[in-house]
Specification:
It is a single chain. Helix content is 89%, strand content 0%. The chain is mainly alpha-helical. It has one domain. Helix 1 packs parallel to helix 4, helix 2 crosses helix 4 and helix 3 packs antiparallel against helix 4. It is elongated and about 50 Å long.
Length: 92
């Protein structure tokens, strides 16, 4: 039982590290996103990542399956968005 809990905690820590890496990627690629869509700003990106991290922490503590799925979907969007922005910036 104790090993199972430690594996779960390790898994959630891995997700939080992934959130932080995706946050850094969004900050680095933020200027490309701003140049493509002027409605975005670095503050919106930072706020989005803070929201995702807060939701993931709440989902981890409450163990609500639907909320965990939603936060992992938001993470996927936050990982894909900088890549799409960089590709669009290169093509344009």
């Amino acid at each position: 039982m104790k090993e199972r809990n430690s594996n779960l905690i390790l898994k959630e820590i891995t997700w939080i590290i992934t959130y932080i890496i995706s946050f850094c990627a969004m900050v680095v690629c933020g200027r490309y996103i701003i140049e493509i869509a002027h409605a975005f700003s670095i503050y919106i990106l930072c706020g989005y990542m803070v929201l995702v991290i807060a939701l993931s922490t709440f989902a981890f503590l409450s163990k609500v399956k639907t909320l965990i799925i939603v936060t992992k979907s938001l993470l996927a969007v936050s990982l894909i968005l900088p890549i799409v922005a960089a590709v669009l910036f290169t093509v344009m």
